[in-house]
Each structure stands twice: as structure tokens, then as C-alpha cells.
Amino acid sequence: MKSICLRLREEIREDRRRRGLKLVVDTNIVLKALIKDSKVRSILLNPGYRFSVPEYAMEEVERHLPTITEKSGLSEREVRLALSMLLTNMQVIPKEDIMTKWSEAEEIMGSIDRGDVPSIAASLNSSYDGIWIKEICLITMEFVTKSVRKV
């Protein structure tokens, strides 16, 4: 007989599979997808997943546009087209929606990488299954909180 925890875990997994994972994507992941036509870009365009990105990430893309065009070999127009394609499968999270979790995110990540605070703050919203940050996909924020605080 399966334990209640095991059954609950399986139910959560099945629910996520049915509705698709809902992940917050960090700025660096978006930048990688813009610079190179890669698996990262393919995943971000996969309709089996639901991605969100903090508005802050769009500001970062704008700031890094010259670097993106240089590294990708694409024109600014082509980079903007690639970004608009990525945004067909991404919801932009307004700054106001993440500010309520900002302090908690700073406590978790501030001493490690302040640049990750917006993504962590966005992912602390209970409607997300996890976060894709620095090539690591963390499916639960409980794991992030416990792991980072141990460092």
C-alpha cells in the first residue's frame, strides 16, 4: 500500500504533466536563447511548458542588446524578432507583482547573486512550479530556500 505522501507526490506530478510545468525563467536563460539557436531556445518555445519572465529581464535584454547582436551575429531587428518569438510562450511578470516577495528573495539570494533576486521573487509566487536559473531547473522553491540558506 502506497503511503499518503507518495500518492500525493504522484498526483502532483500527474497534474503538472497534464497542465504543463509553469516555470519562471531567469534573464541569463533568455539571453542564451537569443544568442544561440540551441536546446534552450527549443525548450522555451515548447508549448508543453508555460514560462514566465520578470519584467526586469526584458530591461536586461535591452541593456545587453549590443552584446547579443555581437555574439549571435544577428542584426538588432533579428534579435528583436527572436525575442518576440520567445515571448509567444512567455508571460512577462510586472514589477509590481514581484515586489511583495522582494525582501524574501534578497534574503535567499542576495548574498550569492543579487542579479537573481527578481527571478527568485517572481518564483516565490505559489502559482509557479519552480524556476529555471543558471542552467538548473529547480522545481520547488522549498528546495531553493533550504539549499541556498545552507551555503
Rg of Cα set: 16 Å
- What's the helix count? 10
Q: In the CATH hierarchy, what is the class?
A: Alpha Beta
Biggest sheet character: 5 strands, mixed
Could you tell me the strand content as a percent range? 5-15%
Give the CATH H-level superfamily.
Answer: 5'-nuclease
- By CATH, the architecture is named 3-Layer(aba) Sandwich
- N-to-C SSE string, H for helix and E for strand: HEHHEHHHEHHHEEH
Please state how the strands of the largest beta sheet are arranged side by side.
3-2-1-4-5
Remind me, CATH topology?
A: Rossmann fold
Cα distance, first to last residue?
Answer: 38 Å
The mean pLDDT is: 77
> Globular, elongated, flat, extended or rod-shaped: what is the shape?
globular
Short description:
It contains 10 helices and 5 strands, in the order H-E-H-H-E-H-H-H-E-H-H-H-E-E-H.
Can you characterise this structure?
There is one protein chain. The protein has 151 residues and is of the alpha/beta class. The chain has one domain: Rossmann fold, CATH 3.40.50. The protein is 58% helix and 15% strand. The chain has a five-stranded mixed sheet. Strand 4 and strand 5 form a beta hairpin. Mean pLDDT is 77; it is low at 139-151.
